[in-house]
Amino acid sequence: MSVATLPRTAGLVGWIASTDHKRIGARVATYSFGFFLVGGVFALLMRTELARPGLQVVSRDTYNELFTMHGSVMFFLVMTPLALALGMYLVPLQIGAVDIAWPRLALVGDWLIPSGGFTMLMGFATNHGAAKSGWTAFAPLSDITRSPGYGQDLWIVGAVLATLGAYALAVSILVTVIRFRAPGMTMLRLPVFTWSMVVTVLMVIASFPALVIALALLFVDRHFDSEIFAGAGGATVYQHLFWFYGHPVVYVIFFPFVGAVGEVVATFSRRRFFGYHALVLSLLVFTALSMSVWAHHMFATGRVTNQYFSLTSTLLAVPAGVEYFDLIGTMIGGAIVFSSAMLFAIGFILLFLIGGLTGIIVASPPIDYHVHDTFFVVGHFHYTIFAGSLFGFFAGVYYWFPKATGRLLREGLGKLHFALYFVGANVTFFPMFIAGWEGMPRRVADYKPIHDLSLVNLISSIGSGVLALGTLVFVWNVWVSMRRPVLAGNDPWEGQTLEWWTTSPPPRHNFDSLPPVKSYAPLYDRRMGET
Amino acid sequence: MARGLAIGDTYSKVSDLFSVYEWVMIVVAVLVYGAVFYAVLRYRRRGDEYRRGTDKRTITESIYALVLTAIAITLFTLTYRTEGRIDPVAAKGGVRVDIVAFQWQWQFGYPDFGKTVLGKQDQPATLVVPVGTLIRFDGVSRDVIHSFWVPAERFKRDEFPGTHTKFDLTFDRVGTYIGRCAEFCGLHHTDMDFFVKVVQRTEFDRWVKT
After folding, report:
1. Count of Cβ atoms closer than 10 Å to residue A57 Cβ
2. ipTM
3. Which of A51, A143, A213, B17 has the fewest CB atoms in 10 Å of its CB?
4. Which domains are assigned to chain B?
5. Which residues of B touch A438 (CB under 8 A)?
6. Neighboring chain A residues of B61 at a CB cutoff of 8 Å
C-alpha cells in the first residue's frame, strides 16, 4: 500500500473504527485505564473492609465478587491490554514502519477486549451477582452446582472475548516486526522495547489458547453435564490448563514494561543501552523458561513434580539478574536526568526487586507449603505487577505521552504522582508479607484479631488510600496538560529511537523521511556524528 | 520475619531453609540497592554532556550470569534436600488421622480408635494429637478443593474431592494452634477454621476413649 492511499478517517467513525495503529493503541490504552480505575475501586473497597477485623462494609458474598472481579479486571482488561497497547502504538514507529500489519484484525482485537470487559462486569446486574470463584475459577468450585447463576457464565464469555482480543493484537504486532521493518533495521537493531514486545507476543501466541480451551470446557461442563473437570483428575487438569496460560501471562504483563524502562533509562542516562545483546538473549531465555514454570502454582496440591518446577522457577533469577545488570549498567557511566519518567523507572528497579526476590522464595516448595494461598503471595505479586509492571507503564506514559499527543505532562505533578505511588506501594504491599507469614489466608473478607494482623491490615489499608490519591494526581495531570498544552516538539527528551524522528503526534503515515539505521539507537548515532 | 515458637519437625526444617533464603535475598537486595544509589549519586547529569560509554562488557556479564546460576542451583539443592525430608510418608507407626474437608467445616477421624470429631458452626473442629508422635494424615474433600493449613507448623496441603492426599507431621510442643482452610472454597471460606490441640500421650489416650 502506498503512503498516499492510506485511509484517513475522522470524526466519530474515526474514533471508533480507525485502523490507524496509533488510534488503536491510544484507544486500547484509554479504555484499559478506565478499567484500571474500576478495578482500583474494587481494591479500595476490599482494603476498607479489611482495615478492621469483623465485617463492616460488605458481605462475604460481595467481598468474594470483589476480589474475583479485581483480579479478573486487572489481568484481562488492564495489564494485558495496556502491554499490547504500548506495542500497538510504538512498534511500527520504532521500526520505521508506515502502519501495522493486518490492521483490521487489530481493530477486531481492539473492540473484543472492552466487549469482554462489559460482558464480565454485567454479572453484577444478574440475580446471583458477578462471578465469585476467584479470577482463577478453579473447578469444581466454578461448576454449576457451587457457582450457580449467570455471573460465572458472563465471566467465562468475557474472559474468552478479552483473551481472543489480546491474541489478535499480538498477532498483528508480531507480523509487523517480521514484515515491516525499515531498510537497515535488522532483528539485532530492534530497539529494546520492540524486542520486549516480540517476546511478549510470542508468549501470548503460545499460552493464551490454553485459557480459551480451559474456559470453553468449563462452560460446556456447566451446561451440558459433561464432567470434564469432575473429580480429582479433572480439577488437576483444569489447574494445569489455567496456569499454562496463567504463568506466561504474568510475563506478558511484565516484559513490555521492562522494555519501556530500558528505553527510559537509556534516554535519561543520555547514553546507549548497555548490554543490548545480553538483554535480547536474556529475554529469549526468560520466554523459554516462562513456558515451563506453570505448576509452581500447584506445589501444595501434592500432584505435580515439584522439584522440576522449582528448578525452572529458581533459574528465572538468571535472566532477570542479567536485565538488572544491563539497566544499572546503563545508569553507571551515564549522565542521569531525574525526569518523572526516570523516577518511575528507578522506582521500578527498586521495587520490582522485592517482588522478584520473594518470587525466588516462593519457588521453593517447602517454603511455599507455608506461604502459598496467603497474603505473603498477595504481597509478592503486587510488588511485581503494581510496583513493577505498573511503575514501568507510568515510566512509559511520562516518556511517550508527548509523542502521542504533542503535549508534555507537567513534571511537578508527575513527581508528586511518583512520590505518592512509591510510598503508597510500600505501605500497602509490604505489610502483606507479614500478614501472610503470620497466618492470614488470601481471599478472606475477615480475620481474627490475633497476632499482629489488625495492625498490618490497617497499615495496608492506609497505604491503598495513598495510592488512590496518586492515581487522582495522574488523572489531574493528564487533564491539565491537555487543557493547557505545553508543546513538546518532535523530540523533547533527545531520544535515541526512530519514533523521535517524526512529528508529535506522528502523521497518519508515520514518517516523511527516515534516517539511516546502523544500530539499535539510530538517533543517538546521528547525534554523536557516527552516521 | 518473626520466628514464633517451634511446634514441630516440619516447622524447623522450613524455618532453617527460609532463613538461608532470607539472608541470600537480603545480601542481593543490599548489593543491588547499593549499585542503584551509587549510579544515581555519582552519575547525575551535571552539564550538557551526552555520554559515550562502553556499550557492553560481555566477559564480566557472562561471569556474573554464571555466578547467578551457581546461586540458583545452590538454593535449589537446599530446597531439594529439605523437600526430600518433608514429602515422604511413613507406611506404619504413629497415629493415623483421616481428614474430611467440606463446605465449610472439617472432620477429623481416628480410624485406629473409632473416634470422629466434627466441626459445627461457631464451634470449629479440634484436632487432638499426642505430642512428639508421628501423625499420619490421609485427607480428602467432599466437594470443592480445600487446603489444610497449620500456620504454626509452616505446612499446608490441598484436599481434593475424590482422591486421598497423604502427609506426615509431628507436633513437638504442647499447646493449641489455629488451623485454616487456605484454598478459596466459596461463601464461608473466611470462617473455615479448626484447632490443633497438642497434648501429652496419656491425655490423648484418655481423650480418644471418651
Report:
1. 16
2. 0.95
3. A213
4. 9-86 (1.10.287), 95-209 (2.60.40.420)
5. 2, 151
6. 275, 278, 322, 325-326
